[in-house]
Amino acid sequence: MPTVNRATFDQVMVPNYAPAPFIPVKGLASRLWDQEGREYVDFSSGIAVTSLGHLHPELTAVLHEQADQLWHLSNGFTNEPALRLAQRLIDATFAERVFFCNSGAEANEAALKLARRYAVDHFSSDKDQIIACAQSFHGRTLFTVSVGGQPKYAEGFGPTPGGISHVPFNDLAAIEAMISDKTCAVIVEPVQGEGGVIPATQEYLRALRALCDKHNALLIFDEVQIGVGRSGSLYAYMHYGVTPDILTSAKALGNGLPIGAMLTTAKIASAFVVGTHGSTYGGNPLVTAVADKVIELINTPAVLNGVKHRNKLLVDGLNQINAKHSVFKEIRGSGLLIGAELAPVLQGRAKDVVTLGAKHGVVLLMAGPNVLRLLPSLVISEADLAEGLRRLETVIAELVPATVAA
């Protein structure tokens, strides 16, 4: 096989990413190893994907078993693993019907299309307004970047779809002023991830539910990042006690294999009659077999209560770092989606923390230039959590004097 390294990326790949200088080649639980044999504590989980860690033995066993039986069927057929996963999701949630696709963006695309189709079928063709939140993120398709509340992701790709409005997140007065009988859907992340790790208030989500009911609009929860256990509940709507009409899920659902899901009721799902929407690979047996095991493993008191326990360990550790170095303005989030907003001493330098973190053997993320984002595995060992925090403190201790001196 030809030798490849980070320089190969610049020679063969479209330059829409700026990947790290090292290439991971092996993972196990919450550790990664690169081409040079260097070891890292993984506090990113592939952006909230490998929530059961790398190379989980039960998932690996299911993958191997299914790989020896059947990988793919066209959507002219169904398959046993997809039906089992759909039933498991229905049994565990408010949903009565499930649609499978390959990513969070596709799940959100399906949800938004369904909302408009449902409005046409039950009300009128001009009931097409979609309301989303500023700083939200819902995917990278043209439709979902237009709905997402970060204009930078849609720049240069116009004209973008119409009928989309944005309001400030957690601002009840703003949504009350915007929503009307022309609104077909309101889409919201219970915890904004890319927008800075900002949780919705319970009062806000409850008010959205009431407003959508009043105006016959569908409430869509984008749980692509916070769903599948990361909040400490299987889905965050359960934590808030507010039930949406449509829920989207992806990322951790496949623990690394590409899958998205849209969950809804039978009444709403009926708007997607045969031929209205589809996916070539969505719900293929290989991926759904693994995802079924993921839900089985995560949706247990041991794992979900463990998320709450690890949240306390992680937040306490960050507070201890802050007590020594005064680098965090605020530590916020839900479960094991934690954002640490940087104080003036490191203002705008989240990327520097991430870069130096890799040099010290801890994989970190950012949510904008001023927020450090931490997404460890839901089952990370206490020892690995402590070691990752120790390495993060080494990074902070190295950066702060340099920042002050500058």
TrEMBL record:
Where is the major localization of this protein? cytoplasm
Cofactor binding, per record:
Binds 1 pyridoxal phosphate per subunit.
Q: In which pathway does it act?
A: Amine and polyamine biosynthesis; ectoine biosynthesis; L-ectoine from L-aspartate 4-semialdehyde: step 1/3; Amino-acid biosynthesis; L-arginine biosynthesis; N(2)-acetyl-L-ornithine from L-glutamate: step 4/4
**What reaction(s) does this enzyme catalyze?**
N(2)-acetyl-L-ornithine + 2-oxoglutarate = N-acetyl-L-glutamate 5-semialdehyde + L-glutamate
Q: Which UniProt keywords apply?
A: Amino-acid biosynthesis, Aminotransferase, Arginine biosynthesis, Cytoplasm, Pyridoxal phosphate, Transferase
> Where, per UniProt, does this protein localize?
Cytoplasm
Q: Which residues form the signal peptide?
A: none
Q: Which InterPro entries match?
A: Ac/SucOrn_transaminase_bac, AcOrn/SuccOrn_fam, Aminotrans_3, Aminotrans_3_PPA_site, Class-III_PLP-dep_AT, PyrdxlP-dep_Trfase, PyrdxlP-dep_Trfase_major, PyrdxlP-dep_Trfase_small
Q: Which PROSITE patterns match?
A: AA_TRANSFER_CLASS_3
Residues reported to bind pyridoxal 5'-phosphate: 104-105, 137, 222-225, 280
Enzyme Commission number: 2.6.1.11
* Binding residues for N(2)-acetyl-L-ornithine: 140, 279
The GO cellular component terms are: cytoplasm
Q: Which residues carry this modification: N6-(pyridoxal phosphate)lysine?
A: 251
Q: Which SUPFAM superfamilies match?
A: PLP-dependent transferases
> Cross-referenced Pfam families, in alphabetical order?
Aminotran_3
What is one process in the GO biological process aspect for this record? L-arginine biosynthetic process
Q: Name one GO molecular function term.
A: identical protein binding
What is the required cofactor set for this protein?
A: pyridoxal 5'-phosphate
Among HAMAP family, the record links this protein to: ArgD_aminotrans_3
Q: What remark does the entry add?
A: May also have succinyldiaminopimelate aminotransferase activity, thus carrying out the corresponding step in lysine biosynthesis.
Family assignment? Answer: Belongs to the class-III pyridoxal-phosphate-dependent aminotransferase family. ArgD subfamily.
Xref: PANTHER family: AMINOTRANSFERASE CLASS III (PTHR11986), SUCCINYLORNITHINE TRANSAMINASE (PTHR11986:SF113)
Share what the entry says about its subunit structure, partners included. Answer: Homodimer.
Can you say what this protein is called? Acetylornithine aminotransferase
Naturally occurring in which organism (per UniProt)? Iodobacter ciconiae
Point out the gene that encodes the protein. argD
